[in-house]
Request: fold
Amino acid sequence: MWDTFCSREPWPSSAGSEPRGMGLASTQPQPSLSDAEIIARIYSGDESAMAQLYDLYSHVVYAVALRVLSDSSAAEDILQDVFVQLWRNPQAFNASRGSLAAWLAVIARNRAIDQLRKKRPAAEAVDLDTVVSANLDLQNTAERKQTIEKVRGVLASMPAEQRAALEMAFFEGLTHAEIAGKTGQPLGTVKTRIRSGLLAVRKAFAI
Amino acid sequence: MSAHEQFADDLALYALGTLGESERAALEAHLAQCAACRRELQELRGDIGLLGLTTIGATPPPHARARLLSALAKEPRVRMVSKQSRRWWLLAPVSAAMALAVVSILLWSQNNALRQDLAQQSEQSSQNQAEVERAREVLALLSAPDTVRVTLITKNAKPQPQGKAIYRQRTGSLVFLASNFAPLPPKKSYELWLLPTSGAAPIPAGVFKPDARGSATVLMPPLPKDLEAKAFAITVEPETGSATPTMPILLAGGA
Reply:
């Protein structure tokens, strides 16, 4: 069910401008492939599969990086970096443990946070261990949109302090101590808010 | 407060990569021993993945795609060598001669480096040989028909069927030891199943028949690497095994 999450069509774009078919490879319609099939083709050195993967998920990677860095040029560098790393090491993604879109979102976020903090890129082993899983079974674009809207709805319904703590941890990579210092909230409260915020996201998808 | 409660909030920060150094060390020590917290960590990472998807909206600039594909074309890749070499032979003989000259120079310089490595590798090889020999001895012990397997139980208690699965997720390695299993009807076998934490369908992990003492061993069945196991279970199946388990489950145990 995971590999059906985002495997058939490009992600919806509010801007409505799909960057597809820019003159290199894959301007022809590609057959629908699952995440695992695309990764297998990439592993065999198939550049057209990489182009297909880019068409499907570049929005995800770029949007996360842009949100973290607020710099389109830096976000594009992260986009390049994430996809080149996947080309070099496609076996880093394990289809049995999550959707490729969510996995890429986490990888992009981690690299963008590293960039934000001017740290050296995280050791590759950390990325390899990144695991994304949740009980999702989305079959089409409408359901995927519904999922995204549901998560956005959960965030919107949180108390402002909790949403702020969660967003500072995720999009700014701040530690709970840094968040506590910034907001004046007790350390323990910040910790609990972050965890319960994530649990609220999970609960929205509980059967 | 239980250990799980103590680490609950830290797990979320760890999943986000924002936990402090000292707390991270304590949590990692706990994670190494606690399957429940490892599963919770995986769930939290799933939650974080969903959070990342909420940013979707912005699209990368059009030139980014061409830039990426251009960069990929320059990437060295072993599995692309054969494709490129075919192109080489279609080119003029001069190009081939130049390529041979370059390769010769490279081989000459590599030869010197290889000589230096040879001594080190020879020593490493001896160590590897010793490890392989020891691994062979362990495998022979586990699989030899004359190996005696003794299950220790409370005095005077009736022996019960028991199975012990020894599983390493990273390599997909599994050893399963069965004891006190009842004899099977003709054309039937016991089958071991790995139940993935992800909730995916059970994965066949070996078919076996107990010997006269009720003992059996499953050694290194083909399993995917890096698959987190929630539990293992045993069912009775046709002699050649099944793709999906047939109820009832006779024995089960959580990882």
In short: The radius of gyration of chain A is 18 Å. Residues 92 and 129 of chain A are 8 Å apart (CA to CA).
